[in-house]
Amino acid sequence: MDSASDLIIDSLKEEPIGETDHFIWFITQIGIVALFKKEENFETYSSNVEVEANKIALDITKEEKEYLKINERKLFLFYS
Asked: pTM for the whole thing?
């Protein structure tokens, strides 16, 4: 595992900043992470993740978005 993945996994141990229908949200040293709550198909929620971010007052529309799977955990990473 690389150092970026380590930073993300360590951040998932911290208190989340919010929770929506399909994601638990975390702040990391790299950016904002939307961790899937269940085994979901990322293509289904790729466009919906921004809508869910708005529900917890996050504007991620200008951020880069990357889908990652780290240690069997599926997540979106948003960064500038």
From this structure: 0.91
